[in-house]
């Protein structure tokens, strides 16, 4: 604590990301990265721009990237916002659409950055308890005084709401912004982008970190009606004129354009997930039905923390949350088939099978 | 205006950056970019990292880049903060050290993003008038109730304070943070980094955009005592875990390490600046004494707006501020010698010499 800190700084409770060990010999299943490299077309596009022009500012409007995203999502470019990872887009959205004193709703078990943003901006929030089976209780999100945010699929549970359920939440919050955080949508969920023409209070946030293998380049985006996007632009242009560097802009564009590669890799991950889920069930694990690139699992008898620690000793990193209601679970990112074989082998040893 | 905007969004007055025309045939002297490319070592370092590892998150702590900067500046790595351009570092600093209701001081003619940040966070501010000769009146910055921020050298004037003058401001604001924004320090000013061991209230902000030719990669940094840096980390970790992508991290490191290239290019720019300043004076321009990579100039009889417009017609972009007290000036970034020859030739035509 320092006397020079502002009141905001004193009261922040910063987010703690998953461990990022630098060793290349570990199997990294702890931060939901994609096990496959970015599209070769992405790497080629970046390389072409590594030249003297890096002395020049990037486009402050990111018009090219927005246009590409707009085409892909079937909206116009004024319905697209881009930012420095979906974390930045989320941070701008909390500031841009929510007001102190007007309670916002999000699930009690969810992306743990939400309460951090709320604290940063002095927002009141209600952490709506998930149902016993960890599903989002849709009715509990109706009529929020300040707005709603939830991930779909949710993290770390991996469970998805149907489009109908998302629409119910939108219908019952007509006067407030509903943010659907679709970081993991491409692994099996139904995107709410289809509802954008119908709901002016809908903001959909996505990222290229997961399904497009670009966590290292920090590219996030928001989709919604033009007024919401204009609101985000106002916040962004009051914060940093150029949030994406020249290489991130071109990487994002190339990644969205290479639809074949995207489909190929995400299908591989989905197939691996289903196969591993089945194997874990056969090993007496309770496995939540995942629509993401990770599994949220609990063994019948062996404690999760023990599994986490034993795996770590063997150089396999997964994520354990020491938090009420979920401390009996671990979250396991879907890696390559080879990585998951090693993981399953290690798990068998730990649980004594 | 949208009913979905927060009060903050409704009241923002976003910053407007200089034009970023995409044509490559223009001579771009309007946004203070470096006319020389980044060091070849920087381009090489980036290229080496354009590979499959871009699927992985960058280091959330940016430890390597911080260590490199710490060595260069002669501080320890806990005295270094890095961000997505110095604009982001400034945005975090306004939120991290200044409180609503406690008036902060900055010059009336200065980087026009400062009032934008202040509005974004609901801060009160006093725009302290520059003296008649556009110098910063040091005593007017004493005993600020909320803190102080000023660029040194100042922009768009280009004038620098001496280290003694900066120290006076620090001495008379012991209980509040004084931010010295040194975006242009490498072109002739005296850096306040030398004062960090002596003043715990000093935060120095620099950027790699100007003197290290990396505007396209968005790398800014802050230097100060450990408590101030910890405050910035708290804000950053409440906003975005990974603010610099993998390529920016390595570009920054390589750029700071290549001291020879840095010295060579900045000396070229300083030499060109001095030569052009003399030529402009010979053409009846009033030229402020610049310690930056730009000149702030006013002609004896020809209006600045006219000069700006006529140059633009010829594909030469400079910056004109339609603002009280400085609307008789234009700001001209120092380009290559060839670019400045073309500029001077065009100027001669416009003023009829």
Could you characterize the architecture of this molecule?
The structure is a homodimer. Chain A has about 350 residues and is α/β, with parallel strands linked by helices. Chain A folds into 2 domains: about 5-35 and about 260-350, Aspartate Aminotransferase, domain 1 (Alpha-Beta Complex), CATH 3.90.1150.10; about 40-260, Type I PLP-dependent aspartate aminotransferase-like (Major domain) (Aspartate Aminotransferase, domain 2, 3-Layer(aba) Sandwich), CATH 3.40.640.10. The first copy, chain A, is built from 11 helices and 12 strands. A 7-stranded mixed beta sheet of chain A has the order 2-8-7-6-5-3-4, with helices on both faces. In chain A, strands 9-10-12 form a 3-stranded antiparallel beta sheet, covered by helices on one side. The first copy, chain A, has a two-stranded parallel sheet with strand order 1-11. In chain A, helix 6 links the parallel strand 5 and strand 6. In chain A, helix 2 (about 40-50) runs antiparallel to helix 8, helix 3 (about 65-75) runs parallel beside helix 8 and helix 4 (about 85-95) packs across helix 7. The model of chain A has no long low-confidence stretch (mean pLDDT about 95). At the A-B interface, helix 1, helix 2, helix 4, helix 5 and helix 7 of A face helix 1, helix 2, helix 4, helix 5 and helix 7 of B.
